[in-house]
């Protein structure tokens, strides 16, 4: 019997996508099919196996016990096939695509990628940035730098650094009020992005849980690096990760008036699909990050 008849690959792909997203409609959007076509493919697979894989209810589908047993194995199988094809492509292309938050890319990654390429001359690098949490199934990215708690299903995660934060401002702005000596002094100045939840966390840790920043002018810059630039220009106080701005402090462009650091329970992570953990270029970048960042944790 031919493989295509014994194992209906299109039906398996439809099942894998629907099981991962718990939606025939979303599976159709991912695969470029109609919801009806996805339903037909899954029914074909169920007929081949001889038992149902989904419980179909109005506006909702859930996996049966058989579906729950099958789904992770099918996902792994497609991952292995993808890895096999990618490995061949790696040999000819040798391009590592890194997706990162804009701030990490600007304040750390861009400064070290040159060293990575000198140590790995056969690997080209393409850096992409955004605040969106990418889906590796829908993007070309090989690895990503993201913030969170490291618990993303199907991904291998390595902790890079804690996401600490504290208020920072230009010394010139601090001088306009005779210096910043207490947390209350910050309230005399313009707060950059007062809606950022980091402010409430920090003020609470500083013993001021009732601070109300709601009436202040709203400002959103879209990335911490832009907020830092505004703070350096003297346009307000920003709440920043101080490890990213040690050069600006050394040059006198920013000051950190308080030693108090807070965090929201998240870290910076290096992540990539579990099924691609043995990719040559991903191994090279992982080893470089492990060697370069003292806070790297497997």
TrEMBL record:
Its name, as the record gives it, is LysR substrate-binding domain-containing protein
Q: Which UniProt keywords apply?
A: DNA-binding, Transcription, Transcription regulation
This chain's source organism reads Neorhizobium petrolearium
Q: Which domain of life is it from?
A: Bacteria
Pfam families for this protein: HTH_1 (PF00126), LysR_substrate (PF03466)
PROSITE patterns hit by this protein: HTH_LYSR
| Record-linked CDD domains | PBP2_GcdR_TrpI_HvrB_AmpR_like (cd08432)
Which stretches make up the HTH lysR-type domain? 7-64
């Amino acid at each position: 019997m031919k493989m295509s008849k014994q194992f209906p690959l299109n039906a398996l792909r439809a099942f894998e996508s629907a099981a991962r997203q718990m939606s025939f409609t979303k599976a159709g959007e991912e695969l470029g099919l109609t919801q009806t076509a996805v339903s037909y493919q899954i029914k074909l697979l169920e007929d081949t196996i001889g038992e149902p894989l989904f419980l179909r209810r109005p506006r909702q589908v859930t996996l049966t016990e058989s579906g729950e047993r099958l789904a992770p194995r099918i996902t792994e199988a497609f991952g292995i096939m993808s890895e096999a094809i990618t490995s061949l492509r790696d040999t000819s292309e040798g391009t590592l695509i890194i997706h990162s938050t804009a701030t990490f890319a600007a304040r750390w990654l861009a400064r070290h990628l040159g060293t990575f390429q000198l140590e790995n001359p056969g690997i080209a690098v393409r850096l992409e940035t955004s605040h969106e949490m990418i889906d590796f199934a829908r993007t070309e990215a090989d690895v990503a730098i993201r913030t969170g708690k490291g618990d993303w299903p199907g991904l291998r995660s390595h902790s890079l650094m804690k996401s600490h934060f504290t208020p920072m401002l230009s010394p010139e702005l601090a001088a306009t009020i005779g210096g910043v000596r207490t947390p209350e002094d910050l309230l005399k100045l313009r707060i950059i992005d007062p809606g950022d939840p980091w402010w409430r966390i920090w003020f609470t840790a500083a013993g001021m849980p009732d601070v109300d920043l709601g009436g202040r002018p709203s400002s959103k810059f879209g990335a911490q690096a832009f907020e830092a630039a505004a703070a350096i220009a003297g346009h307000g106080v920003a709440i920043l990760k101080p490890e990213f701005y040690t050069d600006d402090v050394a040059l006198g462009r920013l000051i950190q008036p308080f030693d108090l650091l807070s965090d929201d329970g998240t870290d910076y992570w290096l992540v990539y699909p579990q099924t691609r953990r043995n990719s040559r270029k991903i191994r090279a970048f992982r080893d470089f990050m492990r060697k370069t960042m003292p806070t790297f944790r497997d």
